[in-house]
Design a protein that fits this description.
With 675 residues, the protein is mostly beta strands. It has three domains: 249 residues, Alpha/Beta hydrolase fold, catalytic domain (Rossmann fold, 3-Layer(aba) Sandwich); 187 residues, Galactose-binding domain-like (Jelly Rolls, Sandwich); 122 residues. Helices cover 15% and strands 37% of the residues. The chain has twelve helices and 36 strands. The strands form seven sheets. It has a ten-stranded mixed sheet with strand order 2-3-5-4-6-7-10-11-12-13, sandwiched between helices. Strands 28, 29, 30, 31, 32, 33, 34, 35 and 36 form a nine-stranded antiparallel sheet that branches. It is globular and about 75 Å long. The protein starts with a strand and ends with a strand.
Length: 675
């Protein structure tokens, strides 16, 4: 249970401060200062985002920065160039301009009279990404970062591609969101009459990012920029990497712990894409207190003991039957001094011809699987869960039935693992372009199947994301698949299952032709798990969540999450309708009202991979009644394909007080590059 506590130390809020860069661009900053900071300077905690400090992140910011300010820190929340009230144009994620602006802003913060010259950088998702990227640039004043729900590899572990496969689930959805976001106006209450000129310039420069992302279907220089895995040694400041098993970005945390040489810590809970003090699935933790210990160590040079504790703390889930939502996950915390955990030991199983996942290899045999296109749509859950309704994968029995499965005997005793499951396969494809999905499941005595981990792979990328090569139809090929990291305890009496399919829509965009895979079961096909000891000591518990009082905003409406799957039995078409944070309508104390709507529809016809399509509709409204000012932005984005081409159409309509100001349409056709 979170504790809401009044802040006893006075905090001064500067609603808007201008950071003027060397090229004359002004960035808009919101600053929280402890009382007396101009006479007694304090370290600063910096966050750099495109999500509008005035209304987009204002509620979550109020649950963090007043707490840090009350404990002797300046909180500095800055909108990226081209977003919120900041000047300029935002043309892409993590651009060289964005990172250069961040470095310059850190120097500005360090030079303020209220700052000691020591700066930390933090953020979740976008802000976690650029914290890593800026740390690699080594600005002198940056002493430490806390990065949450981020990645070190922009190509292999982000919203655009996984395993070289185009992500049908999230790529267009995210591009549609950014198309809408980049068309939003600044707040006239802060920038004055120039707001309209700035707004029109943003819309005139706006371009759908999906076209850029699809123009780079291989891991080229575009994706290497901002991927700190290209040179881990560039990060020298202290780092704390944080995430949750239900989030889409958690794989980066073990890699960062293993490959960085700077002072570092890692924390992985059961959570979704949220801050751990407010996250679900629970248990939430006192993350504000944990962060404060880290900041005090590195920004105030106080010995807090935080670095004497284990490098890694990770939550190991207890076995639980599949369900669409988990408000709370039973389990226990595990801690160790390094990654990979020295206390974990590899254990292997063989994928045998009789469908048994066995301790010993059986005779070699050829097993074929064609799968179905539409089965995963109902049970795969989200890639980047937020702990909301229907985020979690459902019972896998339907998808298992359309897959080639290898299942162990019932376990005589519980088995816990922590890390990356690895599956080695010998297989052949009957098509030069083919997909592969490998899932790891826990099968309960009554047959219920819970998804534990998975990975998708475009088989043309089996050896290289930079230089993919077509499969040679019929030729036996060795393929190594590293599944997503997890911490899980299989129950005694349960069975372990590996399931294989060439399809996984809408996570993985289908290959252009129906595919049959041949798996050469036996000695060349294995599962490896990093198994933990039967019992391990739990580290000392975290403090209970402590949350400052929230901003006194007025909720006018709350959206209802939706993940609705329907099948037209006559047409053979299956559709999923997904609403994400849609319908929220909030009036803030500043007088700004904002309302957000979105709907995404994923569709496919069984047996016809070229029927795959995604449609995303988004709208946002801003209103200031005292100014008789109301803005509405609407976007519709559609993506489909033929054998050789991805087709994307985007439309943006912008309204001022009910009158259409802009109507823009983009049509893009991008050749499929072995995908």
């Amino acid at each position: 249970m979170a504790t809401v506590r009044e802040l006893h130390r006075p905090v001064e809020l500067i609603e808007n401060e201008w950071v003027t860069l060397s090229d004359g661009t002004r960035l808009a900053a919101k600053i929280w200062l402890p009382e007396g900071a101009t006479e007694n300077p304090v370290p600063a905690i910096f966050e750099f985002l495109p999500y509008r400090k005035g209304d987009g992140t204002v509620i979550r910011d109020e649950l963090r920065y007043p707490y840090f300010a009350a404990h002797g820190y300046a909180g500095v929340r800055v909108d990226l160039r081209g977003s919120g009230e900041s000047d300029g144009i935002l043309d892409d994620e993590y651009s060289p301009q964005e990172l250069a602006d961040a470095v310059e802003t850190i120097a500005w913060i360090a030079g303020q009279e209220w700052c000691t010259g020591s700066v930390g950088m933090t953020g979740i998702s976008w802000g976690g990404f650029n914290a890593l990227q800026v740390a690699a640039l080594q600005p002198p004043a940056l002493k430490a970062i806390i990065t949450l729900c981020s990645t070190d590899d922009r190509y292999g572990d982000d919203v655009h591609y996984r395993g070289g496969a185009v992500e049908g689930l999230d790529m267009l959805h995210w591009s549609a969101y950014m198309l809408m976001a980049n068309g939003q106006p600044p707040d006239p209450a802060l920038v004055g009459e120039r707001w309209r000129e700035m707004w029109l310039a943003r819309m005139d420069a706006n371009e759908p990012l999906v076209a850029t992302w699809l123009a780079h279907q291989r891991r080229d220089a575009y994706w290497k920029h901002g991927s700190v895995c290209e040179d881990y040694s560039a990060i020298t400041c202290a780092m704390y990497a944080v995430g949750g098993w239900q989030d889409g970005y958690t794989n980066a945390i073990p890699r960062l712990l293993q490959n960085l040489s700077c002072p570092r810590k890692g924390l992985i809970g059961p959570w979704g894409h949220k801050f751990p003090h407010t996250a679900t699935p629970g248990p939430a933790i006192g993350f504000l207190q944990e962060s404060l210990r880290f900041w005090d160590q590195w920004l105030k040079d106080e010995e807090t003991g935080v670095m004497d504790e284990p490098m890694l703390r990770a939550y190991v889930h207890d076995s639980i039957r599949p369900q669409p939502t988990y408000p709370m996950r039973a389990g226990r915390w595990f801690a160790d001094t390094a990654w990979p955990p020295p206390s974990a030991a590899e254990r292997s199983w063989h994928l045998n011809a009789d469908g048994l996942l066995g301790d010993q290899p059986g005779a070699a045999a050829e097993l074929r699987v064609s799968g179905l296109l539409a089965t995963a749509i109902a049970t795969s859950g989200t890639w980047c869960g937020e702990g909301a309704a229907a985020d979690s994968p459902g019972d896998q029995r339907t998808e298992d039935g359309a897959s080639l499965c290898f299942t162990s005997q019932p376990l005589a005793e519980p088995l816990s693992f922590l890390g990356f499951p690895r599956v080695a396969l010998e297989l052949a494809s009957d098509r030069p372009v083919a997909g592969l999905c490998v899932r790891l499941c826990e099968v309960f005595p009554d047959g219920a199947s819970a998804l534990i981990s998975r990975q998708i792979l475009n088989l043309t990328h089996r050896d290289s994301d930079e230089h993919p090569e077509p499969m040679v139809p019929g030729q036996k090929t060795k393929v190594a698949v590293q599944l997503d990291a997890n911490g899980h305890r299989f129950a005694a009496g349960s069975r372990i299952r590996v399931a294989i399919s060439p399809n996984y829509w809408p996570w993985m965009w289908p290959a252009p032709e129906p595919v049959t895979l041949t798996v050469f079961a036996g000695p060349g096909c294995t599962l490896e798990l990093p198994v933990l000891p039967q019992s391990f000591p739990e580290p000392p518990p975290f403090e209970e969540p402590e949350i400052p009082p929230p901003l006194p905003y007025q909720t006018l409406a709350v959206g209802t999450p939706c993940r609705e799957v329907t099948t037209d039995a006559v047409a053979g078409t299956t559709r999923m309708r997904f609403l994400w944070e849609s319908g929220d309508d909030v009036l803030l104390p500043t007088g700004m009202r904002s309302k957000f709507e979105n709907e995404a529809v994923y569709s496919i016809k069984e047996g016809e991979p070229l029927s795959a399509s995604v449609t995303v509709m988004m709208a946002i409204e801003f209103e200031r009644e005292e100014r008789d000012w109301m803005i509405r932005i609407e976007t519709v984005s559609e993506m489909s394909c033929d054998h050789d081409t991805f087709r994307v159409t985007d439309r943006l309509d912008a309204f001022e007080n009910g009158a259409r100001v802009r109507a823009q349409t983009w049509h893009n056709e991008i050749p499929r590059d072995l995908g």
